[in-house]
Amino acid sequence: MEKVTLKQIAKRLNLSASTISRALQDSHQISPQTKQKVLELATELNFVPNYHASGLRKKVSKTIAVVIPEVADSYFAQAINGIEAVAQEQGFHVLIYLTHESFLKEQAILRELQNGRVDGVLLAITAETSHNRHIRELLNRGMPLVMFDRVCEDMETAKIITNDLESSYLATRHLISCGCKRVALLSASNSLAMSANRLAGYKKALQEQGHPFRPTDVIACSKAEDVNYFFIKTLLSNAHRPDGIIATVEKQATSVYQVCQELNLNIPQKVKIVAFSNLQSAAFLNPSLTTVMQPAFDMGKAAAANLCKVLKRKNLNILPETQVLPSVLHIRNSTG
Amino acid sequence: MEKVTLKQIAKRLNLSASTISRALQDSHQISPQTKQKVLELATELNFVPNYHASGLRKKVSKTIAVVIPEVADSYFAQAINGIEAVAQEQGFHVLIYLTHESFLKEQAILRELQNGRVDGVLLAITAETSHNRHIRELLNRGMPLVMFDRVCEDMETAKIITNDLESSYLATRHLISCGCKRVALLSASNSLAMSANRLAGYKKALQEQGHPFRPTDVIACSKAEDVNYFFIKTLLSNAHRPDGIIATVEKQATSVYQVCQELNLNIPQKVKIVAFSNLQSAAFLNPSLTTVMQPAFDMGKAAAANLCKVLKRKNLNILPETQVLPSVLHIRNSTG
Q1: For chain A, which residues make up each domain, given as ranges?
Q2: A49 — contact with chain B (CB < 8 Å)?
Q3: Which of A19, A140, A215, B179 is buried most, with the most CB atoms less than 10 Å from its CB?
């Protein structure tokens, strides 16, 4: 089937292409009779407006981009569902761009988004992202942008986060109250503000409980699963191994379970573990996993609501406000 | 920062806008000296071509759409990673559109994709999709499209599937060989070819082993998690409850574990379970979960490779061939 063009419709009706275009956009400059005629023929011929031309004309795409590190993680999968719930209600399409934790890819995507394909952006940065010039550039070009979960704290835009410092403080205190003498922290990154906050909460709890802070007990996660597995195995093979672990990335929890099985270390007798995780199966693991559950769905909703509000009213600017939604500690058998 | 336009660059250099445009596209009609001058100023002013105008001119977007039911499922999360691996290598962007198992949303998305935003489409249909006119329409408009996992068997395009019939046949036979007298099938849908094949494999195994087929032992999954939970609870509360379950959707496995815990039904003594699942934590569930693991990553790669090959060579058509990548049965403690 040949694609029908505006010009062909114009020729058939003996009208100009711009009249057809205006009629299809329900312009007040066109009479109801003409509109009716145009619509009938367009429907009959199954005419679809060209996206690029239509975007040029209207300067809006009714689309928002979600730029995130990955989807193979229940936090981001649930956050997307929250974003889509709001976007659908507000009449926006959602496009998902994955950075796969690559800073280079994040820069390329944000550069690409400068060219008007979308009306606004929701962003959670990679674990590698070491500066924010690419984000600032996009904002400077007038692109509405809201950050969530993994934010740049100094960025002048709306941010949706959870109480990372308090959550890891409570997780660490919980492990110590369960009898742990040495708690290790598996961190997501050396550069993320989120990770710095989780580290600060961990340090605060150690200090309060009179435990020394050992830099070697903090391990920054890699993009490669096998490298993380090796780090965790090395950590737990040590004679002076930790008896408590806080995994701040969901996948690390599975690696800890695997390593403990291989090294014959009983959880929770020998090693206790808390994970930042939204896994639905956490309660059915062997043993059931104590988790810090982030409000992923609600964070996605809040981020999208913030962005859509601004997109719907052109004269509105995004306020550089930070919204904090609390996480919840679910105590289960992996901490005894 | 104001956005720099082609016209402004043209004015500054005292050249026509079309000369600037051609220079930026490295046209042979423009002298190397002029190109150099244009490129330098464009770089200095941080000029970004308008996406819509650029799309109109080139008629390609170097983008493929991935239309899938959801990402909160490790099959699709892993398939996306396979798709991205190939797309990145071949220089294509990937946009993810989620249908959330809504047939209406799938139709709206495919209609939207007719307008040239992307060069090609990878599609896994919803559990609700009851006809394929919307897919045929997109194909008729010349959009290259490859289906994967959840395909329409009669669609004249490339399809990447796994051996669904054989997999559920082997899963059912395995449960019967473990002593199950009554095996129930939790199905994804009443309309998907994939589900029909899994049902056929289940029936084949029952028949071979001399077990009667009871239509009431096949339960079609709903979009709503709480409805599925209710179905499973009803099924397992029955005095004549099944002693074996095949969950063909990953999430159903967690629901079965939950219901068994609540009803105090020991897995595997009272109920044995096999799930179609790519969950990394399957081996660490209590008890560890016997799974049919689909080649998700490789299926994503194969689908993307098929599409990119055609997009790179305009004179090529997608051959209506079906590629079958086998799944693997991993036997663990949930089947005794």
Answers
A1: 6-58, 63-162+296-325, 164-294+329-335
A2: yes
A3: A19
Tell me which of B76, B115, B135 to substitute to probe the interface with A (most A C-beta atoms closer than 10 Å). Answer: B115
Task: List A residues 84-113 in contact with B (Cβ-Cβ < 8 A).
Answer: 84, 88, 93-98, 100, 111-112
Which is it for strands A290-293 and A322-325: parallel, antiparallel or unpaired? unpaired
What distances in angstroms separate CA B179 from CA A87, A98, B185, one per listed residue?
A: 49, 45, 16
Q: Do domains A6-58 and A164-294+329-335 have the same CATH topology?
A: no
Q: What is the third-level CATH fold of B6-58? A: 434 Repressor (Amino-terminal Domain) (1.10.260)
A336 inside 8 A of chain B by CB: no
pLDDT in tens, A85-102: 999 889 898 889 999 899
Q: Do A286 and B285 touch (CB under 8 A)?
A: yes
| A 226-265 residues inside an 8 A Cβ radius of B | 251, 253-254, 257-258, 261
User: Chains A and B: how many Cβ contacts under 8 Å?
Assistant: 139
CATH number of B63-162+296-325: 3.40.50.2300
Residue A116 has pLDDT above 50, yes or no: yes
Provide the pLDDT for residue B61: 77
Nearest CA in chain A to B50: A115
**Residue whose structure tokens are 């003594």:** B269
Chain B residues near residue A77 by CB distance under 8 angstroms: 70-73, 77
Q: Is the distance from CB of A223 to CB of A101 less than 8 angstroms? A: yes
* B142 touching A (Cβ < 8 Å): yes
Instruction: Select the residue of A46, A56, A253 nearest B52 (Cβ to Cβ).
Output: A56
Q: Is B59 exposed, middle or buried (0-12, 13-18, 19+ CB in 10 A)?
A: exposed
Question: Where are the alpha helices (H) located in chain A, listed in sequence order?
Answer: 6-13, 17-24, 32-44, 51-58, 74-90, 103-113, 133-140, 164-177, 193-208, 225-237, 250-262, 296-312
Show the CA angle centred on residue A86, arms to residues A80 and A89, nearest 5°.
135
Torsion from C-alpha of A162, A165, A169, A170, nearest 10 degrees: -20
In this complex, do A286 and B281 lie within 8 Å of one another by their Cβ atoms? no
What is the nearest CA distance from B210 to chain A, expressed in angstroms? Answer: 34
Distance in angstroms (rounded) separating the CA atoms of residues B28 and B34:
11
- Letter for the amino acid at B311? L
CA closest to A77 among chain B residues: B72
Convert the pLDDT of each residue in B47-92 to its tens digit.
Answer: 766 544 554 445 567 889 999 999 888 899 999 999 999 998 998 9
What pLDDT digit, counting tens, does each position of A227-270 carry? 999 999 999 999 999 999 999 999 999 999 999 999 999 999 99
